[in-house]
Specification:
By secondary structure, this protein is of the alpha+beta class. The chain starts with a helix and ends with a helix. It contains 16 helices and 6 strands. Strands 4-3-6-5 form a 4-stranded antiparallel beta sheet, sandwiched between helices. Helix 7 packs across helix 16.
């Protein structure tokens, strides 16, 4: 009789539960549901969950481009995610780093000094001056054997490696004042007009530092992320840099590796060891030259220039190929020069006629000082 009563009560409870429209949750179910709800509200996607778990902090917290980039480096190049999160947590937005004021007005406000643009004398004076020539002589004396070795292997005359080093970093005096990781991350991830280019450079930079066992968090470079004695960008570093001193590491902050790498760069970009003349001063009628297009990209037949336009070299030009016409605007007249094939090779390092000429003239000035003529 007791058994029947209990059975009837149990059956009634089952029927009541089945008919009820309200689900009764167990305490443990309620807790789990609340935890899941919190996660759903605060974690929108896998990137943010990884940010919370691993810890991306600092100036680039929550930057979706950077989070995608970290994924790419992890899956394509097997970088450790925790390592990358730590590296980029320490990176700084260069736009938030205060630039020291060089000139202030009478009220103490920082002002920008506007200088006349495009004049050859002003540009030349930035690189060719007594102290820099003396630095070049000292560098050549110290690294004469390495420069000669580079000439023997790649055919590049020492004075043009000297010219590059003097223009780029004043022979190691100025490697750059900004951390490369800060520059590349800021320009790649914060909407710079060349963000695709800088994203590629950031990828190459991480690969480069891993290959050479360098610490990416401490390397200093230029405002564009160029590095070392020769100011190579990361992609050029990977493609052209060489271990010229054979110590097992490619290090462009090492003068020997830098010398070999610049020579290799020129060689790979078409330098011809048979052409020793780089630029020769030309004669033309008048003080200002406007008759023909000028610049490192131009190519003219020497015969046509001589016969049709009466433009001739001021000294003997042994080079027989087409020449570039190089105009250097000075205060009261234009200098005109012939540039040979190797002059155009120099401008692959920096696409500028002025750059090619200042490398040429600085190299010649150091050579003349060193050999006393």
């Amino acid at each position: 009789m007791k058994i029947n009563t209990l059975s009837t009560l149990a059956l009634s409870l089952i029927i009541f539960s089945a008919c009820s429209t309200k689900k009764v949750k167990k305490p443990t179910e309620t807790i789990i549901h609340n935890v899941i709800g919190i996660q759903e509200n605060t974690i929108k996607d896998n990137h943010i969950q990884e940010t919370i778990n691993i810890g991306l902090h600092g100036h680039f917290t929550g930057n979706y481009k950077l989070l995608d980039f970290i994924d790419k480096m992890h899956y394509e190049h097997q970088f450790d995610k925790e390592y990358l999160y730590k590296l980029f947590s320490d990176a700084q937005d260069i736009n938030q780093i205060e630039t020291p004021c060089k000139v202030r007005d009478s009220s103490g406000n920082c002002v920008t000094v506007i200088k006349p643009q495009g004049k050859w004398d002003r540009y030349r004076g930035m690189f060719i001056y007594e102290r820099n020539i003396d630095r070049g002589v000292a560098f050549w004396n110290e690294h004469e054997n390495t420069l000669n070795h580079a000439y023997q292997k790649y055919g590049v005359l020492p004075e043009y490696i000297i010219g590059i080093l003097g223009v780029e970093t004043a022979y190691g005096v100025n490697f750059g004042k900004k951390r490369v990781i800060d520059v590349l991350t800021s320009k790649a991830m914060l909407g710079h007009r060349r963000e695709d280019f800088y994203t590629r450079q950031l990828e190459k930079f991480l690969l480069m530092t891993r290959n050479s066992n360098l610490d990416p968090s401490v390397l200093m470079g230029s405002d564009a992320g160029a590095m070392g004695y020769g100011q190579f960008i990361a992609s050029s570093y990977l493609e052209f840099a060489v271990d010229f001193n054979k110590d097992g590491v490619i290090d462009l902050w090492n003068a020997e590796d830098a010398i070999g790498s610049i020579a290799n760069y020129f060689s790979r970009n078409g330098w011809k060891s048979s052409i020793s003349q780089i630029a020769i001063r030309a004669k033309y009628r008048g003080n200002r030259f406007k008759r023909l297009k000028t610049g490192y990209k131009t190519k003219y037949s020497q015969y046509r220039l001589r016969k049709k336009y009466r433009i001739t070299p001021r000294s003997k030009l042994r080079y027989k190929g087409p020449v570039s016409l190089i105009k250097l605007p000075k205060h009261s007249y234009d200098e005109l020069w012939f540039g040979t094939h190797n002059f155009r090779v120099i401008t692959t390092y920096n696409h500028s006629t002025f750059y090619g000429m200042v490398v040429h003239q600085l190299g010649q000035a150091v050579k003349a000082r060193r050999y006393g003529h």
